[in-house]
Amino acid sequence: MKETQDIKFNLPEDLKKCIEFHGHLCPGLVYGYLVAKEAMSLLKLKRSKDEEVVAISENDSCAVDALQILLGASTGKGNLILKDYGKNAYTILNRSDKRAYRFSRKKHYRYKGEAKEEFGRLDTAISSGTASEKEKRRHKMLKSGDLLSKPFAEVFYAEEVRFIMPPYAPLARSEACATCGEMTMSTKMIEKDAGKRVCIPCSA
Predict the structure, then answer these.
(1) Which residues are within 8 A (CB) of 35 and not within 5 positions of it... i.e. 6 or more apart?
(2) b/e 90-123 (16+ beta carbons within 10 angstroms → b)
(3) DSSP states of 64-132 as a string?
(4) Does residue 181 come out as left (phi exceeding 0), alpha (psi in the -120 to 50 range) or beta?
(5) For 134-143, which contacts have Cβ atoms below 8 Å and span 24 or more sequence positions?
(6) Domains recognised in the chain with CATH numbers
(7) How far apart are CA 182 and CA 27, in angstroms?
(8) Which of 82, 97, 96 is nearest to 32 (CA)?
(9) pTM assigned to the model
(10) How does DSSP classify residue 50?
(11) Torsions phi, psi of 28, nearest 5?
(12) pLDDT, tens digit (0-9, with 9 covering 90-100), for 86-99
């Protein structure tokens, strides 16, 4: 049986960068990688230096890390927006062209790789809760490799959607909380008794 590391030798270099950042290869990371690559092709995107590209993820899964690496989207820059609905769906926007695509995963996944029998056995073990950690890792590697071999249209729907200009990351001065004294973004502060402005934790 192959060890989990073996599959990495055949991976694209940009996916290896995603793995290095994320820490391991898994199907979730591959989903994000596939979406980012397709969005870059459809919207003619380059990695965002500032907020030229906006990624809206409807989950907080491993996929988000691939969006960060390939699209240059991050919460710090304000161009990565997380809406944790638990849905495997993503909207990618190109500010300059005012275009956007939404990608949503198709309902049914079927393994089509060479190790079909092995994958079925591992899938059953995971579903029943009897799989070992080694079996879980092997299952992830098989599914990751299989996803990478599929045409994008077998995995995701892609729909061009209405472009709505998202706001740029807000900037505001900081001021000291009247209770704890810690510097806080002024627009995040809450006014309490006697006009004191406090941070959110101190307002409770």
Answers:
(1) 63, 66, 67, 90, 92, 103, 156
(2) bbbbbbeeebbbbbbbeeeeebeeebeebbeebe
(3) HHHHHHHH---TTTT-EEE--SS-SEEEEEETTTTEEEEEEE-S-----STTHHHHHHHHHHHHHT---
(4) left
(5) 137/4, 138/1, 138/2, 138/4, 140/4, 140/25, 140/26, 140/27, 141/2, 141/4, 141/7, 141/25, 142/111, 142/113, 142/115, 142/118, 143/27, 143/109, 143/111, 143/119
(6) 4-161 (3.30.1330.130), 174-203 (no CATH)
(7) 41
(8) 82
(9) 0.84
(10) S
(11) -60, -45
(12) 999 999 999 999 99
φ and ψ at residue 159, rounded to 5 degrees: -135, 125
CA distance 145 to 19: 13
Tell me 176's DSSP state. E
pLDDT tens figures, 116-130:
999 999 999 999 999
Cβ contact 145:113 at 8 Å: yes
